[in-house]
Specification:
Distance between the termini: 41 Å
Number of strands: 25
Organism: Actinoplanes awajinensis subsp. mycoplanecinus
Radius of gyration: 29 Å
Protein name: Type VII secretion protein EccE
Helix content: 25-40%
Number of domains: 3
C-alpha cells in the first residue's frame, strides 16, 4: 500500500465495498439511561402536581436531563461529552520543558526509572503507582541491513499460562513506522522518484518494542512485582530473542516513539495533540467479541499516508482477587520439582481452577496515533483508517478532548487505558481466537500453528524499513539503514553520480544533506534540481565551520565528505542554496593555500565533529588507494561500484573477503556491492527516469577508476 495521499485515494477506491461496522454495544440501553429517564418523568410529575416555580423547574430540567441522557455527539453520549469537556479544562495540557522529560511529566508524572537484573544485563523499568513496565526491543535498531525475522506471536500468546499464581500481567506490542517518501517531502522530485522505485511498499523507518507490565494487586508486594516482572522478561527475552533496554535506551525510546525533538513542546488541543512541529491524533479500537484485529490490518495501518504512525496492541488477563499466598509460597521458585508436583497432585485440580491464565481469556485493546505537520494533512489517512477498520468490523473512536491519555496509550508504558474505552463499553472477557489455555498448548517459535489462525502471521515492520539502494536479482529491494540511533560511517568507492543517487534517495526519507566538498560546481546542478524544500541541501568546504542541522528519526542528517584529489575549487556556499539563480555576494571564497586542493587531502576524521544519533557520514572515494584502506576497514557500511583488480585486492585483503574479492571486478555496469561486517549483498541501482534526467548515468566511468 502506498505511503502517500495518492496511494490513500487509490486504496479508498479499492475499499469502497468494504463491509460496515456491525451493531455497536455502545448504543445499547444502559442502566444509567433508564434511571435518568425515570428521574425526568418523576420530575415532570412533581412539577405538574406542585405548579408554580416547581413546574417551571420541571419544564426546564426534565428536557435537559433527557437531552444529556439520550443525545449523542460522535461516539459519546451528551453527558459524557460534558464530562470530557470538564476533564479537558481541568487537566494539565502543556509543558514547556524539553524532550522525554516533557512527555513523561505530562502523561505519567509519577513515573520513575529503575532497573532489574537480567542475564543480558540491567534492564530499565518504568515504575508508577499502578505497576512496573520493562521494555524489550524486538529488532536491532542499530542493524545496518534489513534482516528477515520469524513471525511474531500474538501478544495474548505471550501472556503467562503456566498456572502459577502471580500478579496480573499485561503484554503490549508497540509498532511505529515512517512511510517513504516521508510526509513533508511528499511532492518534491525526490519523493516522486522514490515512489517510482519502491511502489510505496518500503518504510523509511520502523521499530517494534514489547512492553511487559506487572500491575499492582491486593496481596502482592513490590518485591513480588519485581520478581514476577524479572521472570516474565527473562522468558520472553529468551523466547523471542529480544534485547532488554537499559535506562538510557528506554528514555530515548520514549522520546523516539513520541517523535519529540530535543526542543519540542507538548500541548493538548481538543481535536489533536501538538508535539513540537507535529499534530498528532489518537484513536482507540476494540474488537468485536470473539474477534481480533488481523496482522494484515496492522501492516496496512503502518503504511497510512502520514508523517508517522504508531500503534499498540495490548492483551491483559482481567484482574482477579488471588488467593492470598503464604510467604513460603511466594518465595518458592516458579518451576516445581517432580517430587513437589507428585506431593501436591491431590491439590492440583483446585490450584488449576484458581490459577490465572488457565481459565481466563485476555482482554484486547488497540490504540492508534497518526502524526503529520498539520491537522488537515491527516484527513486522508483518517478516512482510510476508518475504512480499513470497517473492513474488519473494528469499532474506532477518535479521542477528541482525550488525546493526551490516547498519546500515553501509544507510548511504551503498557499502562491501563480505561478512558480509551468507547462509551457503554464494559470490562468483559473476550474469547480470543487461538488462545492456548494450557501450558502444553502454548505456541512456540517455529510452531506452524502460531500465531492464532484468526490473526495471521505478523512480520515485523523493521524487515521492510530502510533506504532502498537498488534491487537484487529477484527484484526485491535491497535496504540499508544509515539512519539509526548510532552514528553511521559509510564509505562509497565509486563515482560522483552514484553518490548523488544515494543522496537523492535519502532525501526522500526526509533527510537533510550537508555536502562538504572542494568542488561545489560539481554539486550545484544536483542541489538546485533536488532541493525542493528550502534548506534541504547545504554546501560547504570541509575545513569551514558549518553548523549541522538537528537530526531525528523523522528528519535525519546525511553528511557527504567529497575529499578526493581535485583541482582548485571555485566559491563554496556555506548556506543553503536558494531555488533560483545564484545571487552575487552569496559565496565565500576558499583561501588559496587550503590543504587538499590539487593533491590528495590530509586525512580528516570522517564526521568526527558531526557525529550523533540519526546521522550518517558518507565518504566518497572515486578510487581506492592504500591510504583509504583504513577508512574502508573502519566503516560501518561499504558501498562499492565495479573495482579495478588492485582496488579489489586492497579491499578484499583488508576485509578478509576471500573468494568474494574477485567478484568485485566482474560486477555488471550499474551494480553495487553492499558490505558490512557480517554480509555482502549485491544490488542493481536501477535509477528511475527522474534520476536519469537530474543526475545522468550513475555507472562508474573510466576516469573515475
Amino acid at each position: 500500500m502506498s505511503g502517500t495521499v495518492e496511494g490513500a485515494a487509490m486504496a479508498t477506491t479499492s475499499l469502497a465495498g468494504a463491509p460496515t461496522v456491525g451493531p455497536d454495544r455502545s448504543h445499547h440501553l444502559g442502566l444509567h439511561q433508564v434511571l435518568a429517564t425515570q428521574a425526568a418523568a418523576v420530575l415532570a410529575l412533581i412539577g405538574a402536581a406542585a405548579g408554580g416555580p416547581a413546574r417551571v423547574a420541571a419544564v426546564v430540567g426534565a428536557p435537559v436531563l433527557l437531552a444529556l441522557t439520550w443525545l449523542r455527539f460522535r461516539d459519546r453520549w451528551a453527558f459524557q461529552q460534558v464530562t470530557a469537556v470538564l476533564h479537558f479544562r481541568a487537566r494539565r495540557r502543556s509543558d514547556g520543558r524539553q524532550g522525554s522529560a516533557t512527555v513523561l511529566a505530562l502523561v505519567a508524572p509519577e513515573t520513575r526509572v529503575t532497573s532489574i537484573e537480567l542475564p543480558a544485563g540491567p534492564a530499565a523499568v518504568f515504575a508508577d503507582g499502578a505497576g512496573l513496565t520493562a521494555l524489550l526491543d524486538l529488532g536491532d535498531p542499530a542493524a545496518l541491513l534489513a534482516e528477515a525475522r520469524p513471525e511474531l506471536p500474538t501478544p495474548w500468546e505471550l501472556l503467562p499460562a503456566d498456572g502459577l499464581e502471580r500478579p496480573p500481567v499485561r503484554i503490549q506490542l508497540l509498532l511505529t513506522a515512517v512511510p517513504a517518501p516521508a510526509g513533508p517531502a511528499g511532492n518534491d522530485p525526490a519523493a516522486g522518484s522514490y515512489r517510482m522505485l519502491t511502489g510505496g511498499r518500503a518504510l523509511g523507518h520502523a521499530r517494534a518494542l514489547l512492553a511487559v507490565r506487572v500491575t499492582r494487586a491486593d496481596g502482592w508486594s513490590d518485591r513480588d512485582l519485581r520478581r514476577a516482572l524479572t521472570g516474565q522478561a527473562r522468558k520472553l527475552t529468551k523466547r523471542l530473542k529480544a534485547r532488554p533496554l537499559d535506562r538510557t535506551e528506554a528514555v530515548r525510546a520514549m522520546t523516539d516513539f513520541a517523535y519529540a525533538e530535543p526542543a519540542a513542546e507538548v500541548h493538548e488541543q481538543w481535536t489533536s495533540l501538538r508535539v513540537g512541529e507535529l499534530s498528532q491524533v489518537t484513536f482507540h479500537g476494540r474488537p468485536r467479541p470473539g474477534e481480533c484485529p488481523s496482522a494484515d490490518l496492522l501492516t496496512h495501518l503502518l503504511h497510512l499516508p502520514t508523517t508517522a504512525t504508531t500503534l499498540t496492541l495490548t492483551a491483559a488477563l482481567p484482574a482477579t482477587a488471588p488467593t492470598t499466598p503464604t510467604p513460603a509460597a511466594r518465595s518458592a521458585p516458579a518451576r516445581r520439582s517432580a517430587s513437589a508436583t507428585a506431593t501436591s497432585a491431590s491439590a492440583a485440580p483446585a490450584a488449576s481452577a484458581a490459577a490465572p491464565g488457565l481459565g481466563e481469556q485476555p482482554q484486547l485493546s488497540l490504540a492508534i496515533r497518526l502524526a503529520a505537520s498539520e491537522p488537515a494533512a491527516l484527513e486522508p489517512a483518517i478516512n482510510l483508517l476508518r475504512q480499513l477498520a470497517a473492513g474488519e468490523h473494528l469499532h474506532l473512536r477518535r479521542r477528541d478532548g482525550d488525546h493526551l491519555p490516547g498519546f500515553a496509550a501509544t507510548l511504551p508504558l503498557a499502562a491501563s487505558d480505561k478512558a480509551g474505552l468507547p462509551s457503554g463499553h464494559r470490562q468483559i472477557t473476550r474469547t480470543v481466537p487461538g488462545r492456548r489455555t494450557h501450558p502444553d498448548a502454548l505456541s512456540r517459535p517455529g510452531d506452524p500453528r502460531s500465531p492464532a489462525e484468526g490473526f495471521g502471521r505478523l512480520a515485523l515492520p523493521t524487515d521492510r524499513a530502510g533506504l532502498v539502494v537498488g534491487h537484487n536479482r529477484h527484484g526485491q529491494p535491497v535496504l540499508i539503514r544509515p539512519f539509526r540511533p548510532d552514528h553511521t560511517r559509510v564509505v562509497l568507492v565509486g563515482g560522483l553520480r552514484c553518490a548523488q543517487v544515494v543522496t537523492f534517495r535519502a532525501m526522500a526519507l526526509g533527510a537533510r544533506v550537508l555536502v562538504r566538498t572542494y568542488r561545489p560546481r560539481a554539486w550545484e546542478p544536483f542541489a538546485r534540481g533536488a532541493a525542493a524544500p528550502s534548506g534541504s541541501i547545504t554546501l560547504g568546504a570541509p575545513d569551514q565551520p558549518v553548523e549541522a542541522p538537528p537530526s531525528s528519526p523523522l528528519c535525519p542528517l546525511l553528511i557527504i565528505l567529497d575529499l578526493g584529489p581535485l583541482t582548485p575549487a571555485p566559491p563554496v556556499f556555506a548556506t543553503p542554496l536558494p531555488a533560483g539563480p545564484v545571487q552575487p555576494g552569496t559565496a565565500a571564497r576558499l583561501p588559496l593555500g587550503v590543504t587538499g586542493i590539487g593533491h590528495t587531502p590530509a586525512p580528516l576524521p570522517a564526521g568526527a565533529t558531526d557525529a550523533g544519533p540519526w546521522r550518517a557520514t558518507l565518504s566518497l572515494r572515486e578510487e581506492c588507494r592504500a591510504a583509504d584502506v583504513a577508512a574502508a576497514n573502519d566503516a560501518d557500511l561499504l558501498l562499492l561500484q565495479t573495482l579495478r583488480p588492485d582496488e579489489a585486492h586492497l579491499i578484499g585483503a583488508a576485509l578478509e573477503l576471500g573468494d568474494t574479492a574477485p567478484l568485485l571486478t566482474r560486477m555488471r555496469p550499474g551494480m553495487l556491492a553492499v558490505i558490512n561486517r557480517q554480509a555482502v549483498r549485491w544490488a542493481m541501482l536501477a535509477p528511475t527516469s527522474v534520476e536519469k534526467v537530474l543526475i545522468g548515468d550513475s555507472r562508474r566511468s573510466a576516469n573515475e577508476r
